[in-house]
Design a protein that fits this description.
Elements lengths: L6 H7 L10 H15 L14 H10 L4 E4 L6 H7 L8 E4 L13 H10 L5 E4 L5 E5 L6 H4 L1 E3 L1 H7 L9 E3 L1 H4 L3 E6 L6 H13 L1 E4 L2 E4 L4 E7 L3 H4 L5 H6 L2 E4 L6 H11 L10 H14 L14 H21 L9 H5 L2 H4 L6 H6 L1 H17 L5 H9 L10 H9 L2 H7 L5 H17 L3 E4 L2 E4 L14
Parallel strand pairs: 1-10, 1-11, 4-7, 7-10
Antiparallel strand pairs: 2-3, 5-6, 8-9, 12-13
Helix pairs in contact: 12-13, 12-14, 13-14, 13-18, 18-22, 20-22, 21-22
Length: 467
């Protein structure tokens, strides 16, 4: 069906004009109700919030509220805000003005003038949901002019009006989000004077631009995100604006390994033909879980979910690089690939004093080893392998799978564990898994030449070398 091109065609088409008489919050509420009745996910790609964050969001939308998502970095706050466009109509008619004016009730001088001069011949544009979403990252250099607008003397001179005329305003981001959603990320970083302008224009419907009070009754759904650390480290939310934010919704990191893995696998870009053992994928996720409870990591900054995503991508890349170099048909991930991915860990950890003393790379390597030890858990077989090394023997494990299998065969208890693998590559990966678990337990050290017994407790220790 051809969309009406003018206001008159819209009225004659039978398009439900009552949709133009509701605000954006009412529109989102109606569409949410329809989605709840139909079933299915409200925010596809957002996992682990089904019993916590999403119900709070549903209540805020049903109540017609502006809200803020409060949580540490890497908790899908921006993704949720952008997903709010799913609650908007698939298309919405508007006058062709900077503020996307409602054809039945324009708020801008341009819209009112267009409607007065053209009447039912006023041309329409049709807005998709993404056209009605405006997002701004708050930074200390953001000004009132950026968000609200600025007086344009040239426009005023052309019209022969004073600067107090709304026609003399060059609109900022908030007015241009009229009839849509305006999102501010990292709200506390926004200067206080800009925050004051925000709540004033949206709550009272007026704003002072360069000392001139101007009426501008916008229809905007205002949503925010913030990191709790920002309240003390960089800025704060001014009390009048905080009071006008109807709901504060707390986000969180995945509360189970399975949920974290689901997020990581959904987001990570991996080679299509990558062979990824389950224990390697689980160890990747455990690195993040261990970091989130390690006292040497600054927990007020958080450990972003981007850490396991980036680490898994590095694991896939390391496996692919090895396959290309050795002429293998497809990449096979092995535990050693997590060490190749240490740069994906070190750049995402904010360390406490003890962590700084140890060093980011050493701490990251320790987290990897502990992740394999935790993943091994109560599986049997490690004691016999540890006993073989306790006699002072060492083992080098080559990259090439055939040579690695020969080395493994020389260690009878390790060969028994590796034999549980279904393929030669899986056998080698299982053997590495067992060795890394012993490193994580402190019974072996991992050096340049391979694996060796850990020094006795209390003796002079030697630092393991990273690959």
């Amino acid at each position: 069906m051809k969309r009406p091109a003018t206001l008159g065609e819209l009225k004659a088409s039978g398009w439900p004009l009552e949709k133009l008489r509701r605000g954006v919050l009412a529109e989102a509420r109606e569409n949410l109700i329809a989605r709840l009745r139909a079933g299915g996910p409200l925010f596809p790609g957002v996992y682990g919030y089904e019993e916590t964050v999403i119900p709070a969001l549903v209540r805020a939308v049903l109540a017609g509220q502006h809200f803020i998502l409060l949580g540490l970095r890497g908790q899908a706050k921006s993704r949720i805000l952008r997903g709010l466009t799913r609650l908007l109509d698939p298309e919405l008619p508007a006058l062709d003005t900077p503020l996307h004016d409602n054809p039945l009730a324009p708020v801008s001088p341009e819209g009112r003038r267009l409607l007065a001069s053209a009447g039912d011949d006023a041309p329409l544009v049709w807005l998709a949901p993404e056209d009605r979403y405006v997002e701004k990252l708050a930074t200390p250099d953001v000004t009132v002019a950026d968000l609200i607008g600025e007086l344009d003397p040239i426009k005023a001179a052309r019209r022969g009006e004073g600067l107090g005329d709304l026609e003399a305003v060059h609109y900022g981001l908030v007015p241009r989000a009229n009839r849509g959603i305006f999102a501010v990320n990292e709200l506390p970083d926004l200067p206080a004077r800009v925050q004051v302008a925000l709540f004033n224009v949206l709550e009272e419907g007026d704003v002072q631009v360069r000392g001139f009070p101007l009426r501008l009754p916008l229809d905007v759904w205002l949503v925010f995100s913030a990191n709790p650390e920002d309240y003390t480290a960089r800025g704060r939310i001014v009390t009048p604006l905080k009071d006008r934010i109807d709901a504060e919704i707390r986000t969180h990191y995945p509360r189970s390994l399975e949920v974290g893995m689901r997020i990581t696998r959904a987001e990570a870009r991996l080679p299509d033909n990558l062979e990824l053992p389950a224990f390697v994928a689980r160890a990747v996720e455990r690195v993040a879980f261990l970091a989130r409870r390690d006292p040497r990591v600054d927990q007020t900054s958080g450990v972003s979910q981007r850490l396991p995503i980036s680490l898994l991508e590095q694991v896939g890349a390391a496996a692919e690089e090895r396959a290309l170099r050795l002429g293998e048909e497809r990449p096979h991930a092995r535990p050693r690939d997590l060490y190749a991915g240490l740069p994906a860990i070190t750049g995402k950890l904010e360390l406490e004093y003890e962590g700084e003393l140890l060093g980011a790379e050493a701490l990251a390597a320790e987290l990897v080893a502990r992740a394999f030890a935790e993943e091994w858990g109560e599986r049997p077989g490690l004691e016999a392998v540890a006993a073989w090394f306790a006699a002072g023997q060492t083992l080098g494990l080559p990259e090439e799978v055939g040579a690695a299998r020969e080395a493994i065969a020389a260690v009878e208890p390790l060969a028994r564990l590796a034999a549980q693998g279904r393929t030669p590559h899986e056998e080698v990966a299982l053997a590495e898994f067992a060795l890394e678990a012993l490193v994580g337990r402190g019974e072996l050290v991992r050096g340049e030449s391979g694996y060796a017994p850990a020094p006795p407790s209390g003796s002079e220790t030697r630092e393991p070398l990273l690959p």
